[in-house]
Amino acid sequence: MWRWTQILVAGGALGSFYALVALGFSLIFGVTHAFNLAYGEFILLSGYLAYFLWKSWGLPFYGTIPVCLVVMPGAALLLHLFLRRVRSPFEINSLVATFGLALVLQNLMLALFSADYRLIQPEAFPFLHLPATGLTITDKQFGLLTFSLAATLLVHLLLRHTFLGKALRATIQEREAAELAGINVNRMGWLAFAFGGLLIGLAGPMYGQTMYIYPAGGVEATLIAITITIFAGVGRTRSLLLGGWLVGLAEAAAAMWLGGSWKELVSALLLITLLVVRPSGLAGRDGNHKP
What we know:
By secondary structure, this protein is mainly α.
């Protein structure tokens, strides 16, 4: 029984983090239609920044997050400036452009940081331990769960209960109609990249604490973002969270029963199964664009 409880805890924390990773990708893609294959590399840059602030400057782990929250929106806005020069058909050309950018960033990180695997490892301690059940929640799991759910909730409230959020949702649903209604869709694009940069700034340090960071590791983060977005539909915060939990629980169960090397295979099989059984995603065809 305790194993299943531990799987729920580990899978819930990991799945919440996966939803956070996908949230920025989904928001940017929904508003601008930019299919950003360099998304994972930007998360890695945030992770590397947090690692060196922690390792070389002695900042506490949670002290690195505000710095990343300041730096990464600027990097995301520079990417938006670059993508504005991409010509039609924008979706395909943005995919090609960001694929090239991902290769450039990988080689740049290789030259700057070497191919060494790095992990942010602050001193860990059990946040909650119940001896009767064998359940232990570490401070890292609690941090993943708390920060990821808080960020997802804030984005959900922004999209559902503010005028700005309604403008972003309208742009996601139908860009041309939103423009005819008087919404400045170009401004929405800048805001989507800025918000995406904030989410990258939050996800990067936690990614560096949860997984090894190395120059080619951005591919894994990009695949996580794409997989969860396909699960949930573009811009749907609740479905993104549900999709993240499904993948997180599947990976936690695979790691517990089969070993860590099976996690990626289980995620791939889960994605293929969903595409076969429910090709319109978790949200269904009628609600794919409602956040």
